[in-house]
Each structure stands twice: as C-alpha cells, then as structure tokens.
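Hi W., the flavin mononucleotide complex you wanted:
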Amino acid sequence: MSPIHDLRSYLTRLEQAGKLHRITQPVALKHELANVAATLARQGYGAALFERAGEAVWPVFAGAVVDPEMAALALNCNLNEVTATMGRALDPANGLDPAPVATDEAAWRANILTGDDIDLRALPIPTHGQHDGGPFITGGVTVSRDPISGRGNLSYNRMQVLGPRTLGFNVNEWRDTMQFYQHQQAQDKPLEIAIAIGLDPAIMIAAGCRSDEDELRIAGAIRGRGVPVCQGATVEVMIPAQAEIVIEGRLPPHKRHAEGPLAEFHGYYGELWQSPVFEVTAICHRDQPIYQTIVPGAEEHIYLGNVLPREPLLLRFVRHVSHNVTGLHIPPYGNGFSALVQIEKSNPGEPKNVALAAMTAHVNIKKVIVVGPDVNIYDPADVLWALTNRVDWSRDIFTVPGAQGHEMDPTADARGVHTKIGIDATYKPERRDYGERIRYPDVDVSAYL
Ligand SMILES: Cc1cc2nc3c(=O)[nH]c(=O)nc-3n(C[C@H](O)[C@H](O)[C@H](O)COP(=O)(O)O)c2cc1C
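Structure:
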C-alpha cells in the first residue's frame, strides 16, 4: 500500500477500504450536501466526494474521519491501536519538525489569485445546518506563527463568508491563535495567517490537538517524516506544501464583525459572535483542486476536536488507578462530555475509582460509564444494555455537583459549572448470578446472501 502524504493519496486508501462514495449527481451547496454527507457518516458509509456541488467546477470532499475505522485508516494503524498511536504522536519527544521545500514544489502555488481576482464566492463553500447564518469554511486548517517565538501553529476556526474578500474569523479567547492576534493587536499590527484546505488527514488530526509546540510536529510524528511546508505567496507563514487550496490574509487589529450562528459541537446552534475579520490577500490552488469541508456539530467535528486528541490522556489517567483497564472510548455521540471505560475488575470498588480518574482527565468529561470486558464500547446499544441490566441506580452511581465543565455544556451554568456522574455498569454476580450473556457470534453474511 502506498503511503498517505496528501488528500488524494488518502482518497485512494478510503476507496480501497470501501469508505469513499463518489456522488455524481448534482447536489446543492445549501443544506443538501451536508445532509447527504451527514447521513453517509451516520449510517457507516464513510466519506463522500461530491463531483457536482452547486454551480462550482471543483469537487467537494466531506467526512475524512467520521468513525473509528477511518481514524485507523488515517493513522495507518489497526482499530485497537488508535489510542496508542495518538499517544505516541502527541508525545513531544516523537515530534518531527516540518520540512521546508522550494516554492516550486508546493502544489497549491500552481494558481495564485490576488487583488480584484479574489472572489470567495467562487469557492464551493457549503451552508451546512438548517439554521447556519450562511456559508462557512469549516474544514480549513488555520496556519499561523507565534510573533514572539516564531514557531508555527495549527488550529480550526470557522469562517463565515462576509464578502468577496472578507471572512468572519471565530476564535475563542484561550486559543494560541488568539494569543498571537492579541499580541499583534497590542502593537496595532495585523496577524498574518493562511487557511490550508484539502489535506493529509494527519494534518487535520494534528490541528485538533492542543500543543505548546507547532502541531505540524504531531502530523510529522504520525507520518514518520516532517510535513513539507512552503512560504506563503503574500504572508510570512510556512504552509503545508501538498494542500489543495490555500487562502492567505490578515486579521487587522481592533476590527470585529458579527458572524454565526453555526451548528456547534454540543448539537445545538451557537450564538452570534463579534469576531475578528479576515481580509484575504490571495487565493492559491492546485489545478482542479478538491475543496474539503467538515459538517459542523457532527461526527468528524467531534472526532477531530474531542476524541482523538483526548483518548491518550484519558488512558493515562485511568491506567494510573487500575491496570485492569482493557479499553476506552470517548464516543462522538457524547460530544466529548462522555467517557466509556472497559475493565476486567479485580475489586468491587475499582469501577468507581476508575470513573473518578476519568472525570479529571479532561475538564469537559461529565459522564463516565464503566463496563465489563463483554460489552462493546463502540456499540451504543451494547452500552445501553449494560446501563439497563447492570446498574442499580441507588448503589452504582455517584455524582459530583458543582464541578467545572465546559461553559457551552447545555446542562452547565454560564461558567461551565455542572454535575459530573460516574456509573459502575459492570456485572455484579455477587449480588445475583445470571451466568453468561447470550452471544450470537458475527458471521460473514456475504457467504449466505
Ligand atoms: C472541526 C473543528 C472546528 C473548530 N472550530 C473552532 C472555532 O470556530 N473557534 C475556535 O476558537 N476553536 C475551534 N475549534 C477548536 C480549536 O481549533 C482547537 O481546540 C485547536 O486545538 C486550537 O488550537 P490553538 O490553541 O493552537 O489555536 C474547532 C475544532 C474543530 C475540530
């Protein structure tokens, strides 16, 4: 199998695995494209390449990493190795610096549009959710540079199209990108940034991680070689050389504009934000580029932001209190607020200790369900079975009222104060012995159909 090094080589890998679906019929950019992509992801089909999206001549790709199998494909490992592979990639000792290449080696430098030739409305930017405020770039990776140390940085920032050369740029106050912007703003200077679209999924995964170093080092660790980067055409930022499309520009100081609402990670629509404005200085692209999008508030958003970056730390926390942990998962349907831990317990109190450890692994985690080794943590129906048949609600749960969570948790107050819950859903034969669970092992049905 040839190695994944850009979006196109990943599409080949997805197609070989039956996880890429080419949609050849015309699909509207407004709502229809996101509805089709979300349905494919939800029903286990995987990703979609829309060959005729709206009026655009460029195809649109959606759903790069929407389920555990695709995470394994993107990371080039087995399904049961995803957490360990991410753990290795996140260890700064394994990080690999990006590798600068000459400008003529950057695929996206084939076409560089500046000045009056820039028109964002020519790009196939979808309006995803029914109540989104308009078309948003959601699958672009923001590439920036720390103005003090000079190190590079990756992040995701939703961007609403406000005009032919202007985007609303959403950035929370505690992000690195915001720190860089505020530093520049204090000196009345703009922050130069670039948006890279259509990428090797290693870069997409790295961009969802928080690091004090350049997140491109994480992508380098995933691939075992430094990511090739090249100088921007109009900005002083080192940009992944194999991107399909690059939008360059600057965030001028002290300028704000309303943007939103957009489907958020918790499953509701967000509010209008007064966000920095992104003034575009160049649109660069390969010949016949592929535009990439992420359906906001759905599986991929959660996988990249809450599942892959956080499972390794969760594993460290629960292994610290128990060597009997046999698996764990932060399920995308729990939008990063839930954790599932599987253990082969050796003490009746162990599941509760494990739950306590899990809820401190990340501030967002508020519900921890601990199950036994015979429950499939990747199957919500099996987890629900364990909750129904193995939990005595007066004895097997504990709550932690007044704990800190995410301020956008719909059950929390405005400062994110909420109640956490730990649930021991393991089998307790000492209370009542039910013997073995009914099992009908999986067979390859294609041999019978
Ligand atoms: C799909 C996706 C969309 C995101 N959108 C935003 C956003 O609009 N604004 C924001 O501040 N963070 C957003 N995030 C979270 C940050 O991009 C992410 O936490 C990143 O690690 C922050 O990097 P930084 O601290 O290096 O800037 C998003 C994350 C994902 C996975």
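Residues 153, 155-158, 170-172, 175-177, 208-210, 294, 301, 304-305 surround flavin mononucleotide (CB under 6 Å).

W.
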